[in-house]
Every structure is written in C-alpha cells, then in structure tokens.
Amino acid sequence: MVAYQLTWGKRKSLSIMVGRDGAVHVKAPNGLPKYKIDQLVQRKAGWIEKKRAEVCLLEQKIPAHSFQEGDHFLIFGEAYRLVFCNRQSKGSAEVRADQENKLLVIGTADTAPPHIQKELEGWYIRQAKQVFPARVSLYYSQVAQMAGRMGKEIGSVNRISIRNQKTRWGSCSSKGNLNFNWRLLMAPNEALDYVVVHELCHFAYLDHSKLFWQMVEGVLPGFREQKEWLKANGALLDWEGGAG
C-alpha cells in the first residue's frame, strides 16, 4: 500500500502529487470515503513510482553551489562565473553582471559563502523588480487585444510583487495583483515571458480552462515548449543545499 499524506478540501476531484522528498500528497473532495481514496491511490501506484524516479533524477541535476569564486550562476539561461573584487569596507556588496565576459562580479570584503549567497539573492531580487514590470508592460497590450478578440475585457494591473517561492513561478489575484518568483531571472527569457503571459491571461480567465490556454497560445504560440522547460529544468533554478 502506498503511504500518503491526505488533505480534504472543497474541490471536485482527487489530485495526487509527488514532492521533492518522494512523499505522496493527496488532495480529496470533502466527503469522499477514505477507502475509495485508498483504492484510487493504489491504482496509481505505478504512476507514483515513475514520478518518484523522475523526482530523484531531477534532484541530481540541482547545482550544489559553493558561493565561492569560480562558482557559476544562471542569468537568463546563461552561465556566469562568480568573481570577487576586493573592497576595503564590509558594507553592502556591489554586484554587477559582465555580459560580454559572462562574469558575475561581486565587490566585497566579506567573501564568506553565507554573505555571498545573501548578496546574490538581493541582486537577483533587485533585477527582478525592474525586469518583471517591463515584461508585464510589454505583454499587457497583447493580452488585452487577444482578450478582446475572444469577447473578454481585462482589468488593469494593480501591483507587481517579487516573491521567494519554492513551488510557484507566479500567481494572479482577482484584484489585479501579480506575484513572480525572482528565480525566473535564471531561466531563459522565453520561459520568463511564458510565466508573465500565463499570469496576465488569468485577468480574463481565473482558471486553466480550454479558453484560458487558447488565449495563452494566441499570445505565445510556442508556450508549450517553455512550459515543459520549466517542468523539466525548474530544479536548476533552486539554490537549496547551498550556504544556507
């Protein structure tokens, strides 16, 4: 019998998810008998083991960052080598990306890995606060036009927030608030744009219906490739196991 963690809730169907630790998480509709849940999970035993194997392989791909000079970090899908530039004071570090030489340069007197990790995360978040509003502005009009052709109207963007999330790339609320994961700055531009368009399309459809995906495809015809890239390579954007 497959062991699993069960959560009941207001939903129409049963969902099964395999976590990064191999644990099985089941969400079931309120009122569904436990024995039926056991039967459904058991029928999916083969699929669950396959997913566990996939998760194990994906975990092996996660880079074990040392946060020391010579380490490599992704910026828009390209690897940049970490280089230290000494500073006399121990104030905030100066971080810059040298695109020509593919270097990520940090000016700091404190090269301890935990400090470097903190400074790098801060730099990525600052970049994300500039990049995402620009990409949202670029695609908003395209999504609005597509919505019009589909007989829908979309509201305006209320607020854009940058989050440090482990399991979500982005989210959208009915109030027009958008949230994006700063780790997407490490993904190729095309994957980042897919998430932006995905969330903007939720302004018209707050679900994942057929019409929602038609809208996404209308704006980004090749979105499926980017969706699959994130599914297959999302772990590469994770810093777990680093300096802490």
Short précis:
The protein is of the alpha/beta class and 244 residues long.
Description:
This protein is α/β, with parallel strands linked by helices. It is 40% helix and 20% strand. The protein contains six helices and ten strands; from the N terminus they run E-E-E-H-H-E-E-E-E-H-E-E-E-H-H-H. The protein has helices at residues 34-43, 45-61, 113-149, 189-201, 210-219, 223-233; strands spanning 5-9, 15-18, 24-29, 72-75, 78-85, 94-98, 103-107, 159-163, 170-172, 177-181. The strands form three sheets. The chain has a four-stranded mixed sheet, covered by helices on one side. Strands 1-3-2 form a three-stranded mixed sheet. Strands 8-10-9 form a three-stranded mixed sheet, covered by helices on one side. Strand 6 and strand 7 form a beta hairpin. The two termini are 36 Å apart.
**Count of beta strands:** 10
Overall mean pLDDT? 89
Termini gap: 36 Å
Radius of gyration: 21 Å
Q: How are helices and strands ordered from N to C?
A: EEEHHEEEEHEEEHHH
**Largest sheet composition:** 4 strands, mixed
Main-sheet strand order equals: 4-5-7-6
Oligomeric state, counting identical vs distinct chains: single chain
Spans of at least 5 consecutive residues whose pLDDT stays below 50 are none
Supply the number of helical segments.
Answer: 6
Q: What fraction of the residues are assigned to beta strands by DSSP?
A: 15-25%
- Report the helical percentage: 40-55%
The outline comes out as globular
Helix vs. strand class: alpha/beta
